């Protein structure tokens, strides 16, 4: 890692404020976070099928209100969730306590915890987060630092092309109103080739890239090979 996270925090204050304001809605499946509820089973299954979560030590980067973190813990993983939003973390802690699910939640940047816990995790997840930070490559390097040799890293984000703009921003935020307006900025979206390049630069070996596609007629998400809009990427760290 090059710059110290203490001198150059990789945080967008506007993005943090955006999700802080929506925190109370996080666990409401009929709220503006409905898309996260809809895709969470797909994400969980994608991860679990590749790593077998029971007994694994996992860190969830950009955990927000804890949907994925808690889901992985329910499947038997030992989970730490980190985020820079104070309000979503408070919601995550309360929900986990009420549900009787044990998750360690911390308010810290990925780069800082990577310095403190290098090589301690079997699995690192960083889903729907990279498009909200100033320097995604820095977060990817932190993920690579956190995972053990031979460990597993999962990313998900949105492609950057005209179709993604029409579906993920115009369609999802303005037409179908699946997400609050302004959730995503087109310039911050990430092409799979860019994400794969940053992963390789961080000594991660990309194993799979899979698309997540939404059908507005059936209102159902599914995984397939179309990565033109939303996609997941799975990588491993060499032994």
Explained architecture:
Strand 6 (204-215) and strand 7 (220-224) form a beta hairpin. This protein is globular. The protein contains 8 helices and 8 strands. The protein has one domain (13-158, 185-237): Rossmann fold, CATH 3.40.50.150. The protein is an alpha/beta fold. It has helices at 13-21, 34-51, 67-74, 86-99, 110-116, 136-146, 162-175, 192-201; strands at residues 57-61, 78-83, 104-107, 121-127, 147-158, 204-215, 220-224, 230-237.
Q: What is the CATH architecture term?
A: 3-Layer(aba) Sandwich
- SS strand fraction: 15-25%
Low-confidence segments: 1-7
Going across the major beta sheet, what is the strand order?
3-2-1-4-5-8-6-7
SSE arrangement:
Elements (H helix, E strand, L loop, with lengths): L12 H9 L12 H18 L5 E5 L5 H8 L3 E6 L2 H14 L4 E4 L2 H7 L4 E7 L8 H11 E12 L3 H14 L16 H10 L2 E12 L4 E5 L5 E8 L2
Provide the descriptors you would attach to this structure in a database record.
alpha/beta; Rossmann fold; 25% strand; globular
In short:
With 239 residues, this protein is α/β, with parallel strands linked by helices. Helix content is 38%, strand content 25%. The chain has helices at residues 13-21, 34-51, 67-74, 86-99, 110-116, 136-146, 162-175, 192-201, and strands at 57-61, 78-83, 104-107, 121-127, 147-158, 204-215, 220-224, 230-237.
